Amino acid sequence: MLKIAVLVSGGGTNLQAIIDEIQQGKITDASIDVVISNNPNAYALQRAANHGIEHLCISPKDYPTREEFHQELISTIESYGVDLIVLAGYLVVIPEELIRAYRNKIINVHPSLIPSFCGTGYYGLAVHEGVLKRGVKVTGATVHFVDEGTDTGPIILQKAVDVLEDDTSLTLQKRVMEEAEWILLPEAIRLIARGQIEVVDQHVRIKK
After folding, report:
1. Beta strand 106-110 pairing with 138-145
2. How many angstroms from the chain centroid is the CA of residue 111?
3. 93 vs 5, 18, 58, 73, CA distance in Å?
4. What is the predicted pLDDT for the residue at 1?
5. What is this structure's pTM?
6. pLDDT per residue over 114-172, tens digit each?
7. Euclidean distance between the first and final Cα of the chain, in Å?
8. 7 in Cβ contact with 36 (< 8 Å)
9. Half-sphere exposure of 53 (CA within 13 A, CB side)
10. CB neighbours (10 Å) of residue 158?
């Protein structure tokens, strides 16, 4: 059984997508053991509570230094003995020590087709605003492993979503979530839980 920690800062819609697929039996080899947020008011924590999942807030604001926050985050995750860390809209930079300890065991969902509209400054609505400003016709979402760069880790899955003429950043964000993010993130977890993912030379191979 793949034990998962989900890190999230906001409403937790991607968290809910994972919970739903586990409860529906579409993901059979994984469990969410803890949900951690940096934001005490994140609705994601309530989602976890609604489903009997352990949840807690670890905020950098509660620690004198960033290093002490990092140590608390790392030690808490380690205490749950998780096999996979899922970043589901987590707006805090992951410490390199955690990345080294969980190499190719941390995944993130990004609301664009990497390498487009990713990297420093591209998060949340800023991604979709960039898409609309550039006038591209297709966007989407990407699930990737996390490395020391920003959105630079090995790509696991991608799915394209059409950009419509009358889109706003909000309507586009909603469509990308519904048509791509909520599908890709549970699917990536399902593949990892079944041992179908391997990383070779920074490229992901999906085994049958």
Report:
1. antiparallel
2. 10
3. 16, 22, 13, 12
4. 94
5. 0.95
6. 999 999 999 999 999 999 999 999 999 999 999 999 999 999 999 999 999 999 999 99
7. 19
8. yes
9. 27
10. 16
Residues annotated catalytic, as ranges: 110
Three-point CA angle 150, 156, 160, nearest 5°: 90
**Could you tell me if 202 and 34 are in contact, meaning their C-beta atoms sit under 8 angstroms apart?**
no
Residue 101's φ and ψ, nearest 5 degrees, are -70, -30
Euclidean distance between CA atoms 52 and 64, whole angstroms: 32
Question: DSSP class of residue 164?
Answer: P
Query: How far apart are the C-alpha atoms of 131 and 164, rounded to whole Å?
Result: 11
DSSP element (H, E) containing 68: helix 66-79
Taking only the tens place, the pLDDT of each residue in 66-84 is 999 999 999 999 999 999 9
CA-to-CA separations, 133 to 112, 137, 158, 197, in angstroms, rounded:
14, 11, 22, 35
Residue 87 dihedral angles phi and psi, to the nearest 5°: -90, 110
